[in-house]
Amino acid sequence: MDLGLAGLKALITGGSRGIGRAIAERLAAEGCDVAICARGADEVKAAVAALGKTGVKATGRALDVADGAVLAAWVADAGRELGGLDIVIANASALASGCTPAAFRQAFAVDLMHTVNAVNAAMPLLERSRAGAIVAISSISGVEDYGIEDAAYGTMKAALLYYMKSLANHLAPKHIRANVVSPGSIYFKGGVWHKIEQEQPEVFRATLAANPMGRMGRPEEIANAVAFAVSPVNGFMAGANIVVDGAATHRVQF
């Protein structure tokens, strides 16, 4: 199936590893030019080099997405380097745990406000696109309670659902679509669940047992959902929350 993504320009935050890297790779494989950012300069450099080998234009920068001015400057620069922007994927997360004021501040600055700042900075470019699309990476923690240790993270992930729905309604007349992709437990080397597997094996086993599929997801499975969400062939989907969790959540989504 041709997703119609060839030649489009995509920006992905937190794009050097894990889900963000998989999204960048999938969009590049579809023919998108890509811009990524992450905190680690070496990881960004390696990812950009690998993405460039696919034949698309790839660029990246090491930065802290919690710094709104720095993030906005990069979005503008990436748009100039790529020759425009059609797609914005807000993927970066602080992965803040706990219910302390510090955890809430960290999650607010990264998970929520970096999304707001990236969208605002990209908007002049998206308004000139023929296929403008925004996706925020939320989480099943935004739709179900996974305990007080998940409070800061889950609260901000839930806020993204409202923000994207509001954006979708506001931007639809401008032919810019906004949607959410909410992953369940995703396993990759060096990721959160890899660490839990090593340090808290009983938690890891319990999480596996609780999933009807008996496994965790892979980054590329989230990337596939994102690619479809931003695809021009999926042009009537806006304001949706795509849950990719192996049936782990129990709620009925209305």
In DSSP terms (H or I, runs of 4 or more residues), the helix count works out at 8
Overall mean pLDDT stands at: 97
Unreliably modeled segments: none
Structural class: alpha/beta
Instruction: Write down the CATH topology.
Output: Rossmann fold
The run of helices and strands is EHEHEHEHEHEHHHE
Question: Quick gist of this model?
Answer:
With 254 residues, the protein is of the alpha/beta class. Helix content is 46%, strand content 15%. Strands 3-2-1-4-5-6-7 form a seven-stranded parallel sheet, sandwiched between helices.
Please name the defining characteristics of this protein.
254 residues; alpha/beta; Rossmann fold; 7-stranded parallel sheet
List the helices and strands and how they pair.
Blueprint (H helix, E strand, L loop, with lengths): L8 E5 L4 H12 L3 E6 L2 H12 L5 E5 L5 H15 L4 E4 L10 H26 L5 E6 L13 H21 L4 E8 L8 H8 L1 H10 L8 H12 L10 E4 L10
Parallel strand pairs: 1-2, 1-4, 2-3, 4-5, 5-6, 6-7
